[in-house]
């Protein structure tokens, strides 16, 4: 902890509230050596964009021609959320229909039958990648599911259904977990980079308007430094109008 005091006494009339802002360990403003400019709080330098990005959450994405930051974080979260929701919707609409077709042919579904279906799924994934590589190598069209054999008596059900059902479940479950993690970040007002950061944070406290009397304090990085409350944290990303929270409006 550093403390510097000015020689000028501060009278009660000109006392002002202490001003706090993030700084380095010497009390100087944050500085980006790559940009060669002052670095605002909660910014990280992106080497692809070649600039300091405010509240940077994800690395550079070519698909969006930029980083995921405070300007497009809402759109990124809604994209992940809606894709996960759609994947799970497709899954829960496919499974009952697939089970109905299977049950109509074999009757009750047993554990051994489920194991056979799982083996068909593994074989389908294997032949899918194998045939895709063969197409690239031989430069000719090969049906992706060539070599996959269906269950006895269920040849009328394409192996595509098994693969889509299982992949849809895994894809939807993964994205649902990813969306849940970012929901947690939003209500805590932090980014994924800030969550994993373990470096100490310093703040400079000015006790007068001139900045001659100040103190540098080392702040414990407890992941709730910028917490403003659940509702305010959510509104800082999704907006203050609840009617537009699930819309693509920023």
UniProtKB/TrEMBL annotation:
Residues that span the membrane, as ranges: 75-94, 161-185
Main localisation: membrane
Coiled coil: none
Catalyzed reaction equations: L-cysteinyl-[protein] + hexadecanoyl-CoA = S-hexadecanoyl-L-cysteinyl-[protein] + CoA
Full protein name: Palmitoyltransferase
Bilayer topology term: Multi-pass membrane protein
Residues in Palmitoyltransferase DHHC domain copies: 27-197
Domain of life: Eukaryota
InterPro entries: Palmitoyltrfase_DHHC (IPR001594), PFA4/ZDH16/20/ERF2-like (IPR039859)
Subcellular location as annotated: Membrane
């Amino acid at each position: 902890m550093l403390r510097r005091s000015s020689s000028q006494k501060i009278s009660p009339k000109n006392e002002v509230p202490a001003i706090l802002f993030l700084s380095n360990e010497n009390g100087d403003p944050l500085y980006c050596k790559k940009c060669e400019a002052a670095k605002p709080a909660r910014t990280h330098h992106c080497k692809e964009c070649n600039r300091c990005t405010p509240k940077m959450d994800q690395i550079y994405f070519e698909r969006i021609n930029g980083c995921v930051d405070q300007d497009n974080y809402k759109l990124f979260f809604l994209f992940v959320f809606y894709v996960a929701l759609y994947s799970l919707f497709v899954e829960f609409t496919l499974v009952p229909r697939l089970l109905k077709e299977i049950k109509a042919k074999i009757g009750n579904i047993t554990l051994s039958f489920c194991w056979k279906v799982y083996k068909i799924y593994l074989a389908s994934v294997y032949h899918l990648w194998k045939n895709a590589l063969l197409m690239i190598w031989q430069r000719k069209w090969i049906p992706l599911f060539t070599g996959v054999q269906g269950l006895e008596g269920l040849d009328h059900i394409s192996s595509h259904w098994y693969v889509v059902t299982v992949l849809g479940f895994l894809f939807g479950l993964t994205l649902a977990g990813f969306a849940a993690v970012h929901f947690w970040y939003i209500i805590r007002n932090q980014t994924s980079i800030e969550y994993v950061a373990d470096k100490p944070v310093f703040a400079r406290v000015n006790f007068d308007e001139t900045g001659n009397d100040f103190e540098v304090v080392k702040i414990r990085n407890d992941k709730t430094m910028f917490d403003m409350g659940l509702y305010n944290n959510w509104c800082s990303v999704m907006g203050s109008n609840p009617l537009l929270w699930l819309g693509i409006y920023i």
